[in-house]
Amino acid sequence: MASDMMVTAIRRRRKIHAGLLTATLMLWLGTTPAQADDSQHEQGRAIVRDFGMQLQTALKVALEEGGPAAAIRVCKEIAPQIASELSRQNGVKVQRTSLRVRNPANLAEPWQVEVLNAFEDAADDDAELELEHFEAGDAGQPARYAKAIRTGAMCLVCHGAAVSVDVVKLLDSEYPFDRARGYELGDIRGAFSVTWPVN
Ligand code: HEC
């Protein structure tokens, strides 16, 4: 598996064209990706961008209008809805996962654990670094894309170290197995992932 693992980093500030990767942190040992792989890679990026934007907007509105209780509902109900909607529209499997999940339903699959660990290794202290992974499909193995999710200021309300008593109460009742607290600004909170059906 490690041989076809590729994690790439894109500097956020310089707004580099999506096709230009500034650093290849793990060597791609396969052949040059074909045209089809490039378009899947781009599709993965677009889906994840869409997911991230929809979620951010819904979260922000819910936090402003209804506070953490309403926003928890967004994370619990709206996030999976957006994921299934995007999955259906694109004929792929769209997920959100983490090495420390709040909801066991989001538990990382073995390939996601490997990618998340590679993201952690690559992340260093540089919160500006955007990390992604793409692997082309092969006989019997699906094409996969993953993008690291950073912990922003808004996320700390429910994933930070100093979560308010009210939020803790809500989380404790809904998520008895919650491991997704104690994050700091810029930490990798998890990843979005896209998996294509095997040809
Ligand atoms: C209002 C509270 C709240 C805020 C704010 C919040 N989250 Fe969450 N987050 C949750 C809840 C609740 C879940 C569990 C959702 C579920 O049941 O699938 C969750 C789940 C997740 C997951 C899926 C993996 C897991 O742990 O189960 C990720 C990734 C995630 N959040 C990232 C973020 C990021 C990044 C932000 C900031 C942009 C953020 N969250 C802001 C409450 C919150």
Topology:
Layout: E1 7-11, E2 23-24, H1 35-90, E3 93-97, H2 110-123, E4 129-135, E5 144-150, H3 156-159, H4 165-174, E6 188-195
Antiparallel strand pairs: 1-2, 1-4, 3-6, 4-5, 5-6
Heme C is lined by residues 56, 59, 68, 71-72, 75-76, 79-80, 96-98, 101-103, 105-106, 149, 151-152, 154-155, 157-159, 180, 189-190.
Describe the structure in your own words:
A hairpin with an 8-residue loop joins strand 4 and strand 5 (144-150). This protein has one domain (2-44, 91-195). With 199 residues, it is an alpha+beta fold. The protein contains 4 helices and 6 strands; from the N terminus they run E-E-H-E-H-E-E-H-H-E. Helices cover 42% and strands 17% of the residues. Strands 2-1-4-5-6-3 form a 6-stranded antiparallel β-sheet. It has helices at residues 35-90, 110-123, 156-159, 165-174; strands at 7-11, 23-24, 93-97, 129-135, 144-150, 188-195. It binds heme C (HEC).
On the 0 to 100 scale, the average pLDDT is: 86
Helix share bin: 40-55%
What's the total count of β strands? 6
Main beta-sheet annotation: 6 strands, antiparallel
Question: What low-confidence regions span 5 or more consecutive residues with pLDDT below 50?
Answer: 12-31
